[in-house]
Amino acid sequence: MVLSKLATNLMLQHRFAEADPLFAQALAIEEKTLGTTHPEVAATRRGMADSAVKQKKWGDASRQFRIACSVPRSFGSARDLSGDAAQSALYDANSCWIRLSLSLATWAAEGGGATTED
Q1: CATH of the domain at 46
Q2: Does 62 reside within a domain?
Q3: pLDDT tens-place string over residues 52-89
Protein backbone atom coordinates (compact mmCIF):
# COMPACT_ATOMS: atom_id res chain seq x y z
CA MET A 1 0.00 0.00 0.00
CA VAL A 2 2.80 2.41 0.80
CA LEU A 3 4.39 1.94 -2.63
CA SER A 4 1.06 2.54 -4.32
CA LYS A 5 0.47 5.74 -2.35
CA LEU A 6 3.98 6.96 -3.17
CA ALA A 7 3.37 6.14 -6.84
CA THR A 8 0.09 8.06 -6.74
CA ASN A 9 1.81 11.11 -5.27
CA LEU A 10 4.50 10.97 -7.95
CA MET A 11 1.86 10.58 -10.66
CA LEU A 12 0.00 13.64 -9.40
CA GLN A 13 3.27 15.56 -9.78
CA HIS A 14 3.52 14.26 -13.38
CA ARG A 15 6.64 12.27 -12.48
CA PHE A 16 5.53 9.27 -14.51
CA ALA A 17 9.00 7.79 -15.07
CA GLU A 18 9.22 7.35 -11.29
CA ALA A 19 5.56 6.54 -10.61
CA ASP A 20 4.93 3.81 -13.17
CA PRO A 21 7.64 1.39 -11.95
CA LEU A 22 6.43 1.85 -8.37
CA PHE A 23 2.86 1.05 -9.41
CA ALA A 24 4.13 -2.12 -11.12
CA GLN A 25 6.16 -3.12 -8.06
CA ALA A 26 3.23 -2.43 -5.73
CA LEU A 27 0.90 -4.47 -7.93
CA ALA A 28 3.27 -7.45 -7.96
CA ILE A 29 3.62 -7.40 -4.17
CA GLU A 30 -0.10 -6.90 -3.52
CA GLU A 31 -1.18 -9.64 -5.91
CA LYS A 32 1.26 -12.06 -4.29
CA THR A 33 0.27 -11.21 -0.71
CA LEU A 34 -3.42 -10.29 -1.05
CA GLY A 35 -4.55 -12.09 -4.19
CA THR A 36 -5.77 -10.66 -7.47
CA THR A 37 -9.33 -9.95 -6.29
CA HIS A 38 -8.49 -7.81 -3.27
CA PRO A 39 -9.76 -4.19 -3.23
CA GLU A 40 -6.24 -2.84 -2.60
CA VAL A 41 -5.08 -4.55 -5.79
CA ALA A 42 -7.96 -2.92 -7.65
CA ALA A 43 -7.01 0.46 -6.19
CA THR A 44 -3.43 0.06 -7.42
CA ARG A 45 -4.69 -0.90 -10.87
CA ARG A 46 -6.92 2.20 -10.89
CA GLY A 47 -3.85 4.26 -10.03
CA MET A 48 -1.97 2.66 -12.92
CA ALA A 49 -4.90 3.42 -15.21
CA ASP A 50 -5.07 7.03 -14.02
CA SER A 51 -1.35 7.40 -14.74
CA ALA A 52 -1.87 5.99 -18.23
CA VAL A 53 -4.76 8.42 -18.82
CA LYS A 54 -2.61 11.38 -17.82
CA GLN A 55 0.01 10.18 -20.33
CA LYS A 56 -2.66 9.54 -23.01
CA LYS A 57 -1.76 5.85 -23.10
CA TRP A 58 -5.35 4.90 -23.78
CA GLY A 59 -4.79 1.19 -24.46
CA ASP A 60 -2.95 0.74 -21.17
CA ALA A 61 -5.57 2.77 -19.31
CA SER A 62 -8.39 0.74 -20.82
CA ARG A 63 -6.79 -2.60 -19.89
CA GLN A 64 -6.05 -1.55 -16.31
CA PHE A 65 -9.52 -0.05 -15.77
CA ARG A 66 -11.23 -3.16 -17.13
CA ILE A 67 -9.33 -5.40 -14.75
CA ALA A 68 -9.75 -3.02 -11.80
CA CYS A 69 -13.46 -2.53 -12.45
CA SER A 70 -14.13 -6.26 -12.28
CA VAL A 71 -12.42 -6.68 -8.90
CA PRO A 72 -14.96 -4.93 -6.61
CA ARG A 73 -17.75 -7.06 -8.05
CA SER A 74 -15.87 -10.33 -7.59
CA PHE A 75 -14.68 -9.29 -4.12
CA GLY A 76 -18.21 -8.32 -3.12
CA SER A 77 -19.63 -11.61 -4.30
CA ALA A 78 -16.93 -13.57 -2.48
CA ARG A 79 -17.57 -11.88 0.87
CA ASP A 80 -20.64 -10.68 2.72
CA LEU A 81 -20.23 -6.93 2.77
CA SER A 82 -22.57 -4.72 4.72
CA GLY A 83 -22.83 -1.12 5.86
CA ASP A 84 -19.91 1.17 5.04
CA ALA A 85 -17.90 -1.60 3.37
CA ALA A 86 -20.74 -2.32 0.94
CA GLN A 87 -21.19 1.39 0.18
CA SER A 88 -17.48 1.81 -0.39
CA ALA A 89 -17.33 -1.21 -2.73
CA LEU A 90 -20.31 0.10 -4.70
CA TYR A 91 -18.78 3.57 -4.98
CA ASP A 92 -15.43 2.13 -6.12
CA ALA A 93 -17.10 -0.04 -8.75
CA ASN A 94 -19.24 2.81 -10.12
CA SER A 95 -16.34 5.27 -10.12
CA CYS A 96 -14.15 2.77 -11.93
CA TRP A 97 -16.69 2.15 -14.71
CA ILE A 98 -17.28 5.88 -15.14
CA ARG A 99 -13.55 6.54 -15.44
CA LEU A 100 -13.21 3.70 -17.96
CA SER A 101 -16.09 5.10 -20.01
CA LEU A 102 -14.63 8.61 -20.01
CA SER A 103 -11.21 7.29 -21.01
CA LEU A 104 -12.67 5.28 -23.88
CA ALA A 105 -14.73 8.26 -25.06
CA THR A 106 -11.66 10.52 -25.02
CA TRP A 107 -9.61 7.88 -26.81
CA ALA A 108 -12.29 7.50 -29.49
CA ALA A 109 -12.56 11.29 -29.89
CA GLU A 110 -8.82 11.35 -30.56
CA GLY A 111 -9.23 8.71 -33.26
CA GLY A 112 -8.10 5.67 -31.27
CA GLY A 113 -9.67 2.50 -30.09
CA ALA A 114 -10.19 0.96 -33.50
CA THR A 115 -8.70 -2.50 -32.87
CA THR A 116 -10.52 -5.56 -31.57
CA GLU A 117 -8.37 -5.56 -28.39
CA ASP A 118 -9.52 -2.06 -27.36
Answers
A1: 1.25.40.10
A2: yes
A3: 999 999 999 999 999 998 875 555 454 555 667 667 76
Asked if 11 and 54 count as a contact pair (C-beta separation under 8 A), the reply is yes
Domains contained in the chain, number: 1
Give the tens place of pLDDT for each residue, 28-38: 999 999 999 88
Q: Which residue range(s) make up the domain with 26?
A: 2-109
Which of 99, 48, 106 shows the shortest CA–CA distance to 69? 99
Q: How far apart are CA 89 and CA 66, in angstroms?
A: 16
- 116 inside domain: no
- Which has the minimum average pLDDT: 38-52, 69-83, 86-100? 69-83
